[in-house]
Amino acid sequence: MENPTQFSDMTLPVWHLQITGKCLFELSNFDLIRCIRQDIFTNLAMFEIIERIDEQNTPFYADIDSMELMEKLSSVSSEMLSVYKDKLDRIVENIKQKHLIDLADIWMFDEQKETYKDYINKIKNKIQ
Q1: Which is it for the CA torsion 106, 94, 96, 35, positive or negative?
Q2: Of the candidates 31, 42, 75, 96, which lies 20 to 30 Å from 85 by C-alpha distance?
Q3: What is the DSSP string of the chain?
Q4: Are 31 and 19 in contact (CB under 8 A)?
Q5: Phi/psi at 27 (nearest 5 deg)?
Q6: Distance between CA 65 and CA 61 in Å, rounded?
Q7: pTM of the entire structure?
């Protein structure tokens, strides 16, 4: 059987075929972001993002992708986020108690910090 990704020059279908053959832990941060962006496997992508943040004990494990990961997570519906309320509460509390936003070294501009805080507040409001 031939690999269908060899015969397509359309990047989205090729990417989709590639990720369907992977386990969650094999997906890159970009793959997870793109899943939410494309509204495919959103539940699984959200689960994996939350697990990675929880496992690393910081939302900044992904360096430059951290901002977009949190943006995409905050864009998910409150119904979906509420399934992970306990973990998300713990993550938000950890961020606030340890002042992780202020300590992160990924910010190029102060406005990015404020935007990130907005994402955190959005998530917090959605799971209350």
Answers
A1: positive
A2: 31
A3: ---GGGG---HHHHHHHHHHTS-GGGS-HHHHHHHHHHTSSHHHHHHHHHHHHHHHTSTTTTGGGHHHHHHHHHHS-HHHHHTTHHHHHHHHHHHHHTTHHHH-S--SSHHHHHHHHHHHHHHHHHH-
A4: yes
A5: -75, 140
A6: 9
A7: 0.84
CA gap 70, 13 in Å, rounded: 25
The answer to whether 51 and 84 have CB atoms below 8 angstroms apart is: no
Q: Which residue has the tokens 């340890």?
A: 98
Are 52 and 61 contacting, i.e. CB atoms less than 8 angstroms apart? yes
pLDDT in tens, 27-83: 999 999 999 999 999 999 999 999 999 999 899 988 878 999 999 999 999 999 999
Written as one letter, the residue type at 21 is G
Give the long-range contacts of residues 110-117, CB within 8 A, separation 24 or more: 112/67, 115/67, 116/67, 116/70
Widest pairwise Cα distance in the chain: 54
